[in-house]
Every structure is written in structure tokens, then in C-alpha cells.
């Protein structure tokens, strides 16, 4: 039986637009910083450090920022980081030296990451964890990831550095307007009552607390959270395959850069479409088993690549199917997590998810590359596919336990 629309989403346009511009904001800078580095004559190693530097603060501070969102209001904290990114955008063209630019990239990358995690937190709160609305939010986010690189590429080609970074200012202003139009979610209760009123922020609140980190990691003790985190790891692993040995293999069989790019675009397009069906999938059966099944099939579709005979049509079909499955599964994972922890810990669980995602994205690609160096690219698909499939066995057992224990019940709220 379908639930009625949450009261906070009676007019959801603002939060969906925020999703489009929040995720697009990150992709805009991911695309822009290598172009800027190359224009300054930097080496490939320096550009690699600039690209990787954007994730540094997110690894260590995502949990802290998530807790601040729960305590002081998600929209309020998110706007601070959006405004930080707007203020830093015009500074980039003024910094042509590597080390100052790296520091600027670290701070700006953290602000963009926290703005995106804040938007994820806000939709989970406003949608009350319903996958249908989280899926629509994901659909609009995919539009942002598609449009932002194309738009900034055009501005770079016709205008150069300054117009490109001023586009970042304009992008942030639109995101600000969307967030200001979206409702604020309730903050965690204090003195027995919840509200959307602002608490006074003190200096001591800005300093990360060990107790907050311990509490966030303790959320993994919730079976539904543990299961979805494990599935997210598998999902990140398949993306690691795509961005490492997958590209190496396709280049080795003679595909052009354009053809490889089309395969990557296929995943993004069908991911957006797949996310629109997440609400229905949640109602059709056991969500956690559906998530694991979809992830297992996605692993198979990427690891079967060497056995497709190099036929582009089969490679494209595999990417289309994998993208649709990943798009379907992602909102379901977010929904299960949101309902498992309750509405006053949404920032904490998103921060935990972002932390584990960043760690996985840092650790997995080097492992993929090492395997490909020791064996052939073809053999590495088999080895990685077997390893990931074996990891699914304990996750499947844990999924069964999580389904029996939780049944996707919402956690009781603190009083």
C-alpha cells in the first residue's frame, strides 16, 4: 500500500532542483581542476594530487559535519558550505602555484562534498525515508552530473579560466536559491521537544568530538545499516573496476576514447532512469534482498566484460543494464538506512556513508591496478569477480538476519 506524500514534500520542486545543482556542483569542479592545472603547465602527478585532494576533508570530517546537521539544521549547515564554495570560486584564477592551489582545492573540495551530503540528508529527512521521493531526487541529481561537465567545457573553450570559475559562482547562487525555497527539517530534540528553530552555535560545537565518531560507527551494529554499508562497498568496488581495469581492457581491444565515453554515459543515463523505479521496488518484495540481488547482477555485468568478444553492442547492453540496476538500488539503500536510524540521525548516517565511500574510493583503485599488473587485464576481471562474489555470501546471510530483525521498521525517536 502506497503512503501519502510527506507534508514537507507537497511542493518538492525546490529540493529536487537542489539535488540537481548540488551534485552537479561537485562534478563541475571535478572536470574543471584538471583543465586549470594543465593550463598552468602542471605535471600529471600534480594534477592527480589536485584531483585527489578534494576528498581529503570528506574522509575525516563527513561524520562531524553530519552530526552538526542533525543538531543545528541540515539546510543551515549546507548553506554555509555552499556559500564557502561561492566565495572560493574567484580565488582559483588568482592562484597559479601548486601548493597554494592544492590547499585551496582541499578546502573547496570539502565544502562541495559537504554541500552534496547535506542535500542528501535533507531529502532523506523531508521524504521521511521513502524511496520513491529519494529516487526522484537521484534522477534530478543525475541530470546535474550530465549537464555540468558539458556546460563548463563549453565555457572553458569559449571563455577560459575566469568565466569558468565565475560559472561556479552562478551555479552556487542557484543552489542557494533552491535550498532557501526548500523547508528546513526538524533538528534533534533537546529538552524533550523537537523543532526547526535555530540553536546557537558555539566554538566548542565546531571542534570534532570523539564521542560523535564512536556513536556514528556504532550505527553499524544496526543490521539494516550494516547490510547496506556492505552493499555500498560492493557497489563502490564495481565502480573501481570501471575506472581502472575496465578502461585498460577496452583500450587494449582498440576502442576509441569516444566509444569508451559513450559506455560511461550509458551507465549514468540508465542510472537516472532506474532510480525512478526505486519506490515500486521497495513495495514489491524484501528491499534488502532486492538490493543484494541487483548488486550481484551488476558485479556479473562488469566482470563478464572479457567474455563478450569485444562486441560493442554487447558491451553497451551490459552497461545499460548495470546502470539501471545501480540506479534502482541506490535510493533503496538510502531509504533503508534512513528508516533504520530514525529522522534525527540522518546527518550522522550520511556522514558515515560518505566516510566509508571515500575510504573505499581511495583504497580500491590501487588494489585493482596491482592485480592488473600482476596478471593480465582479462584475468583480473575473473579474480575480482570471484572475490566480490565470495563477499556476497556472508552479506546474503546477514541480509536474511536484517530482514528478520528489522523488517524495515523505523527506529524509535529519542525523547
Give a brief rundown of this model:
With 415 residues, this protein is an all-alpha fold. It has helices spanning 13-39, 44-53, 56-72, 74-88, 98-126, 131-159, 161-181, 203-206, 210-218, 223-252, 257-275, 278-284, 287-303, 312-341, 346-374, 377-405, and strands spanning 187-190, 193-195.
List low-confidence stretches.
none
- Beta strands, count: 2
Query: What portion of residues is helical?
Result: over 70%
* 3D shape: globular
Largest sheet entry: 2 strands, antiparallel
Notable traits:
415 residues; mainly alpha; two-stranded antiparallel sheet; 2% strand; globular
Itemize the secondary structure elements and their pairings:
Layout (H helix, E strand, L loop, with lengths): L12 H27 L4 H10 L2 H17 L1 H15 L9 H29 L4 H29 L1 H21 L5 E4 L2 E3 L7 H4 L3 H9 L4 H30 L4 H19 L2 H7 L2 H17 L8 H30 L4 H29 L2 H29 L10
Antiparallel strand pairs: 1-2
